[in-house]
């Protein structure tokens, strides 16, 4: 490495996962062209990498907040482009960062264009999922399986139920980051977690009712009602939670459906919604080896499927709907438009809707690698998720801020109640 070239990450090389850093290089020759690279290994050992070519200014400095990439994984001024543009060496890999205990470690480096890319400088960025002082408590109580995240301090704090998926491991990313911003968050997986059955045939709202009651009993939770945050299949579960269960004041729906999908929904041992099913003959294969499944879900508005529609007009709380217009999992934008129209027909104004052109299905907390395709647990094959990387990354930044504002606005806290509980 060159002793005079310096690579700096500002304000610090240690930050939260959802915080931007300013990448700066100094000590280069005037107008020198170099390649900046970033690399990270996920929890499965899969390597993700990106690179971009930059030209230094007259003083030998590069500032990614100011200077455009000339070529590489992206072009133009993209301060965090090296992070969101990272790709795996093999196709159809989704970056796995599930456990909140370990930081997302990214190695940045500066390379000469000549001399076989000799490294001139490097720096390591540790991107933590929890702020110092946030507690993490695994929960295995009654039927509940999940993890509870609690911010430091006396509170009171708003309580949020985080729904992830019905298969595989529990993702702690959203929950731990929200806790770092002052929310008590219980992240649960309804089925297929630890000792729970994996070959599920139905969903029960009773499970989520139990989880909400557990969350409300936590000493630091003093919000007048709880929030729910969801993505994809759990979006329709969140709609049903908000529509049928009391004390849900704020529901975040991201790229879900307006109807109960895939599995019938039960409450108090009675079926309340049949499942809106899919037609796998409408899967569209592509040359990449991943398929397009956007058109496989049956029409929820067809007469024979209307019993699967969730009656969101029953909900007492508020909704935040967010849809990626290029979602290739299903037509999230059309589902969102139908829900907005339904609420308006019932004279409701308890919602906000956000539509993101160029965004795909997996809208997550910002600055993680964009996922164009990966394995779909229902289809049982590799699928395309849609989206253009730059637009998708921008949507994640905007949505993440809106989610926090929405939850704070609609989950007011009672300090007196919190002190009484303590």
List keywords for this structure.
single chain, 422 residues, alpha/beta, Immunoglobulin-like, Rossmann fold, eight-stranded mixed beta sheet, seven-stranded mixed beta sheet, 7 helices, 23 strands, 19% helix, 29% strand, globular, disordered C terminus
Brief account:
The chain has 422 residues and is an alpha/beta fold.
Helix content: 10-25%
Main beta-sheet annotation = 8 strands, mixed
Q: What would the CATH topology of the largest domain be? A: Rossmann fold
Specify the overall morphology.
globular
Look at the structure and give the mean pLDDT: 93
Report on the architecture of this protein.
With 422 residues, the chain is of the alpha/beta class. Strands 11-12-14-13-16-17-20-21 form an 8-stranded mixed sheet, with helices on both faces. The chain has 7 helices and 23 strands. 19% of the residues lie in helices and 29% in strands. The relative contact order is 0.12. The termini are far apart. The longest helix is centred in the last third of the chain and has 22 residues, at 389-410. It has helices at residues 81-84, 173-180, 205-216, 233-244, 332-345, 389-410, 415-421; strands spanning 6-10, 14-16, 22-26, 33-41, 47-55, 62-63, 71-72, 87-88, 104-112, 119-128, 135-141, 144-150, 159-163, 184-188, 203-204, 226-231, 248-254, 265-267, 270-273, 318-324, 351-356, 373-376, 381-384. Mean pLDDT is 93; it is low at 416-422. The chain folds into 2 domains: 6-128, Acyl-CoA thioester hydrolase/BAAT N-terminal domain (Immunoglobulin-like, Sandwich), CATH 2.60.40.2240; 135-416, 3-Layer(aba) Sandwich (Rossmann fold).
